[in-house]
Amino acid sequence: VTLADILPTLAVSLADKVPAHLWPDTTTQDDDLHVAGVRLASVAATFGTPVTVLDETTVRARCRAFRTALPEAEVTYAGKALSCRAVLRWIAEEGLSLDVCSAGELAVARSVNFPASRILVHGNAKTPDDLKAALAYGDVRIVVDSLDEIDHLAALARTRQRVLVRVTPGVDAHTHRAITTGTDDQKFGFSLATGAASEAVRRVLSHPNLELTGLHCHIGSQVRRVASFELAARRMVDLIAGLRRDHGVTIHELDLGGGFAVPYLPEDDPFDLTGYATRLRVALHYECQSHGVPVPKLIIEPGRSIVATAGVTVYRVVTVKRGPTTFVAVDGGLSDNPRPSLYGARYSVRLIGRTSPARRTPMTVVGRHCEAGDVVATDVPLPADIHAGDLLAVPCTGAYHHSLASNYNQVCRPPLIGLHNGTSTVLVRGETEEDLLRRDVG
Ligand SMILES: Cc1ncc(COP(=O)(O)O)c(C=O)c1O
Description:
By secondary structure, the protein is an alpha/beta fold. The protein contains 14 helices and 21 strands.
């Protein structure tokens, strides 16, 4: 029996304490929750629900943390995590580069004049339009992913085009299967083990208008083990040494991708960025020295770890169904967050807008969509008196939410509101039914 069992009010106040590592850096708590000096319940009142807020201070702080931990590296934000003009402006101001994956993501970059020399273009199946948009942008680097793409790019490029070759290094990142990208026999990159990577390099070298500047790999997302990154670095240096020996080429850039894990639940540990930087630097220098190759410039591509904890989504409870499981249904779900159904992702949830002395009991928060798998969070402790009209806040929703959102059930996508120094600004407005009908021209 703990003190919290004897004093239920103590249990409630312990349960209400915000786990700082899941929430934006500027989160403060009195009898309600505030981010950047703005009460979350007032954001819901002003902009409606669901609504996702993004704390600018947290995004900028994460950029600085990466640049401080690895000052020698080119830190490249993976725009797929969340791409909108404001975020790209902040990223540019913080000195980061940008990884884009489509002509659409390039269009957002172009709209804020993101410098071409700091853009890397990715994609396992870049379309002709993607390649043309990349070439038209100017001096970007293109990470080639197939032999077809190499030949196609060489045919399209009018000036010498810088490329990196994406390699699959055969490293298990020990993460969810759907976000594992470094193992053999899959759609991304050229396998190291089968010799496909060396063949791709030969193909690039056979085109005089392509300039091989580097190699790239990305082993997966939500990677917790630094050892997986070290192993990838060692294998890539081995390849660099082989290419120098066999083809006399010097690789100037080594891009080890992103994938740094982010905590979603109170019990998750934050990723040890300083430990990663130290261990990676040692591994890279040791391997290069023992192979007698110059240390290439390091590139890393954090996406989730730049924006995830800057975001909070606020939903309104529509109904509560009590039974063996208590289902709390909210006014969003699968269309603004498909991650639980894609990866079994788990979240924490808290009541905002009012305090409740009621006992905390496990409940399942579900969405409004026509899928039984439309779950926001399973078995989360919420006050027993929860009812329709209450507001729930879900932290860690900055990455792969806005960018993965859909219009399933013709539900409009929520707005993205920037919070900074006590003010709220619409970054991306909420969708309207007119927006939906504008495209439906049949
Ligand atoms: C090539 C590449 N780089 C970087 C990232 C970013 O990964 P994360 O957001 O987990 O850091 C991804 C994610 O899919 C990726 O495919």
